[in-house]
Structures are given as C-alpha cells and as structure tokens.
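Lecture notes, continued. The same structure-token format from the folding unit now serves as the input rather than the output. Read the line below as a description of shape only.
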C-alpha cells in the first residue's frame, strides 16, 4: 500500500530559496557587475539574506509576520535586482514598499514577543 505524500512547509521552502537567490545576487554583484548595479545587487542580497534567515527563525511564532518579511524582501531586493539587470528605473519607486513591509513584519514580531507567543 502506497503512502500519500505530504507537502512540507511551502513558506519555509520559499525562505530557503530566498536565501539561495541572495547568495547568487551577492556573487554576481561582487564578480560580474560594476558601478551602481553592483551596489544594488549587494544591498539587495544583504537585506534578502537577513530577512530569509529571520523569516525561518520566526516562522513558528507568526506566519503572518514571516510572510511580511518575505514579501518585503522580495519587493525590496527584487526591484533592486531588476534595475541592476537593466530594468526601468521607475522600479526604484516600488523599492520602499518592500522596506515598509519588512518594517511592519519586524513590528509584528515585536508584538508577538511582547504577547508571549
């Protein structure tokens, strides 16, 4: 009798993949890009990696807060990566929305800890 396969935690998998993308972006920024593109890649990689690790750490305490961290990192870093790879500069106007989502995620985490969760 075959056992049914169960799906693990997709949000945790997304955080792990986010960490992998951060390493790729950082490596490309350090070795394949120059000028402003290298700066954007480095900044995006740093923020994305920090939030990938933080998201995995707090995932069990608050999936909503972790989700905000992931969304924020994707918007913030994703727009920087896109511009570094030749995307339109207007994407820079979207970048702060990612920062806002990350800030709200951190505030949510603080509230969770204050409530003892």
């Amino acid at each position: 009798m075959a056992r049914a396969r169960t799906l693990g935690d997709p949000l945790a998998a997304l955080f792990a993949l986010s960490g992998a993308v951060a390493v790729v972006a950082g490596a490309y920024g350090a070795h394949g890009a120059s000028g402003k593109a290298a700066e954007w890649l480095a900044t995006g990689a740093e923020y994305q990696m920090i939030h990938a690790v933080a998201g995995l750490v707090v995932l069990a305490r608050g999936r909503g807060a972790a989700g905000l961290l992931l969304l924020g990192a994707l918007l913030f870093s994703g727009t920087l990566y896109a511009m570094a790879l030749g995307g339109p500069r207007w994407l820079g106007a979207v970048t702060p929305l990612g920062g806002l989502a990350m800030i709200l995620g951190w505030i949510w985490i603080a509230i969770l800890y204050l409530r003892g969760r």
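Point for the exam: The CA atoms of residues 109 and 115 lie 10 Å apart.
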